[in-house]
Design goal:
Alpha-Beta Plaits; 319 residues; alpha/beta; homotetramer; Preph_deHydtase_CS (chains A, B, C, D); D-Maltodextrin-Binding Protein, domain 2; ACT_dom (chains A, B, C, D); five-stranded mixed β-sheet; lyase (chains A, B, C, D); phenylalanine biosynthesis (chains A, B, C, D)
Chain lengths: 319, 319, 319, 319
């Protein structure tokens, strides 16, 4: 049987690759590294790949806006799973380089910003040499070493790289966990074709895109009440201009719970009835496995009981 | 077959009797006049009567609060029908009396207040002789006449009475439509035992009682959002202290639509899930036959379509 | 100096008189008993009285609807104070009558209903002789006694009366607290002309009338959000048909707090901006003296702080 | 007098430079090109620059998330102005190259995606050579030409570049407007230090960051009601994880109107009272100059009138 094909933001050593590793082992898939998020998603649409792994909440390698916009329109795709990747950086160099040798550091600007305080404290006065990606400086060092040349001729002495890139490119770590925010993490999702929805686990998330019927101050509220009335929490909401007219917005939303949950289902029906456009982008287990908090009166049992009660009074029973 | 028995606020000639006449002819029922609204309702509970006809929005003969409180607790009863009765008054007297003879008018205080402007214009200086009910002065005149005595010895020359009381008690009308508000009307309901709910007509009303879970400013809003989210208009809402604790309230509500309507049913399920007490008091045709305004996305068809769409996406269909 | 004149639902011995007694002593006012609530309120408008004492939440002697409707339109009046009167009944008779003599009881139908369970337990089989008011049977007995006649010729042996009527009319109590609900109480208000608003006490209530801009399901919600957004609880809400058009409603509302409170003031401004009609009916101390619960962020201090912060950022300050 | 210093995402020829050109002429400022958005914003905080020009709604060159996160915390900065830049691409090459010569195109992956349909139609089979930025291939061609070398040795025959880059780097345009969405545009903002807020124009936007008090389904609604109750429309809302705890969110919001508007001011006070964190990020003219739609009852005049009315009723006036 053919191995599943995964498109992702490559090359080897990126945070996205780390996300991919949480999803599937290197021997259990065909890896299709892509130049950017949109290309990874498009590869699934064209059939070139079965799945894409892309960032959906992160600044460290792009994604987010590109991911949301790519999913909101075009041939329908769904999210099948999410994974969280700690955003850590390692200061690494070619073998033989010591911290005292480090005066010029190559780093993607995003990485540089996230390590700025550590650098100011431990390597004051060090010079930033911009790189085009998080793994580019590591790849350059590896190339030089493979060619038997001196990496220092590259114009930098060390690099800020994702931890997996250290081993991938044969570097020596000089300092680990040099990011200023030790809790930083990025959320990635696995994108695939619609089909069977992953079964509910009690700790699920549901992603959707919805357009408002008009631009009134109350229209956004009315849309959100479809969730609140059924006790459904939202964990992410982002407006995006629709583009076809001034002042019209599309909302990308993560709701807590699974489409199979009664409360989520009824909220979706409410959206379908009142909003001009609703796209279901999938229900999948939460990466943090945190159980959904079920508010009073909003469990599946409450819905089933309420339905039975309604049937009874419709049939003439006394209350 | 036994005729149905109707309890109502008697005696003959009251506005309530006029309401009863809209419901059933005198030969098709057993009439059980009662001294007040609570007694009429209680007569149904004890089995003495099959139905009660009582005022639910009116000041002209009481009702309203007494009706609402009697229905809110105790053995469950339901509203089966509503009728509207124009609240008109006729100035009437014993045969032979002319308008020029009228210096003292007997009237229930409610009636007096509602005819005050007409009286000031047409009979300035006339004296008010309070009566204990709208029909009491007519009955007194009839008694005197039947006994061959002079009604003027009663201490008044004429009376403000409901129009049907003129003929019932053999009076002569001196002036009709003497009420100051020509559009005044009172709403009556037919109360009976739970059983088959009257079929939807497209112009229905649903009455219910509901308690709030707590006393927060937001609890009332959250309750009302159960209606608004499904596009259900309310035509009446009244809070009543529950009585078991300070600051706790019961709400008596008329919603537009029928319990068989999808939007009303879903709203009821929402109330059942979130509120500690919900009593369905019936769905019945509106007396004014005004079709329910169905807001965008809240027709039965919209609900059915939304349910089909939900089933499809739960099954893995693309959107 | 002239004594203040109080109109109220008379005669002596009514619950309304008991309410009046909480407000002012008999030697400190001129009492103007009226036949009904509307007349009492109108007496203030005509200048015949300075104040009226009327029931605003009660079934025991009428009021409520009549009170609300009378205040909602016409020359503006305001509520200055509220008092709570326990609704208790005493079984009383002419001196010399004992409980064993009691086979027929005169009672206003409202009173009869409220004592039904006690009567069934203690005087099973006793007959109800309807009275036209709570105090009427007591007055009839007193008349007979004053005339030297036998009260038993009235057709009843005892009466259910408000406790104060026992002494007023020289009766003998046979049993006290015969009402089925020991906690029953009625809320009365003192109505007067607009002028200085009673000072805030921290335990205040504010009454108002408001019309909705339209008949949408959302219009009621939008009106109530004016309160909820500022953390103002409502303790009473009642819809009343406006009467000028089908489906238009007026709302009579009691809000917790004083018009001088920042949160109440801002809510009133919101109503004034959005609703076609708002009538302020007064702020006055709560009869139960229960301090208003102030939700997080809605104290006067919070408003003042927020205003200062707004002024700062409008002036260019950093936040 | 020293010229104002502007930090922006460089180098010459970027869309951000086009945005900068709308703000200030090249001779009226000192240009400080930066490697990324965060660096540009940080340059203002450190004092290196007076202003930064950064993308706030765009996918074409990054920005957005980085911009929002950089502004949400740290030393307060404000938005002073927004500008819209059409996102157009030109297919350009070294002088002498004709469309028939083009088999390999260098383009930033974002650019490639946005021109895909045009390319499929007009240059089927053309090969994508990824570039590290929108202007990088143009700069490379210019370098070769300046050095007297053949640009075709770069490995590509033409490039997709922002229109201004064509002239900047001395290229020849082969085809203009090759982007698939002719209406695509990106929103940029000018960031500076707090100080005098730009005067209201009637077509303004206000940006803020706010945290919710808790994670309830109703908390987001309650926050948004602070805007809706005052009739303030939102044109952008984006949630961002706060990072200090699971499930806590920060919201970045654009509201229509100016902080000097009464309705916006009152909404801000409401947020200040109820939410744990509110940061005002500036009021500034809308780039599209579209007048703010003022809903019924929410003009400054309505607020002033309501305040006068409230003062009157607080003083005892009749309503």
């Amino acid at each position: 049987m053919a191995l599943p094909r995964y498109a992702y933001l490559g090359p080897a050593g990126t945070f996205t690759e780390a996300a991919l590793r949480q999803v599937v082992g290197p021997d259990a898939c065909v890896e299709l590294p892509q130049a950017d998020v949109s290309s990874a998603i498009e590869a699934v649409r064209t059939g070139e790949a079965d799945y894409a792994v892309v960032a959906i909440e992160s600044t460290v390698e792009g994604g987010v806006t590109a991911t949301l916009d790519s999913l909101a329109v075009g041939e329908p795709l769904v999210l099948l799973r999410e994974v969280l990747v700690p955003v850590q950086f390692t200061l690494a160099a070619a073998p033989g380089v010591t911290p005292h040798d480090v005066h010029r550091i190559s780093a993607h600007p995003h990485a540089w910003v996230q390590c700025r305080r550590w650098l100011a404290r431990h390597l004051p006065g060090v010079v930033h040499v911009p790189a085009t990606s998080n793994t580019a400086p590591a790849a350059l060092i590896a190339e030089r070493l493979a060619a038997g040349e001196d990496p220092l001729t590259l114009g930098f002495d060390a690099a800020l790289v994702p931890p997996p890139a250290v081993e991938t490119y044969g570097l020596t770590p000089l300092a680990e966990h040099v990011g200023d925010n030790p809790d930083a993490q990025t959320r990635f999702v696995v994108v695939g074709h619609p089909g069977e929805v992953p079964a509910p686990t009690g700790a699920d998330k549901t992603t959707l895109v919805v357009h408002l019927p008009d631009n009134e101050a109350g229209a956004l509220l009315a849309m959100l009440e479809q969730f609140a009335t059924r006790g459904v929490n939202l964990s992410r909401i982002e407006s995006r201009p629709i583009g076809d007219a001034l002042g019209r917005y599309s909302f990308s939303i993560d709701a807590e719970g699974h489409i199979a949950d009664e409360r989520v289902g009824e909220a979706f029906m409410g959206l379908h009835r009142r909003c001009p456009y609703v796209r279901f982008l999938g229900s999948y287990p939460r990466a943090d496995a945190q159980q959904t908090e079920v508010h009073v009166g909003t469990s599946d049992h409450d819905f089933v009981t309420a339905r039975a009660w309604l049937d009874a009074i419709r049939g003439g029973a006394a209350t």
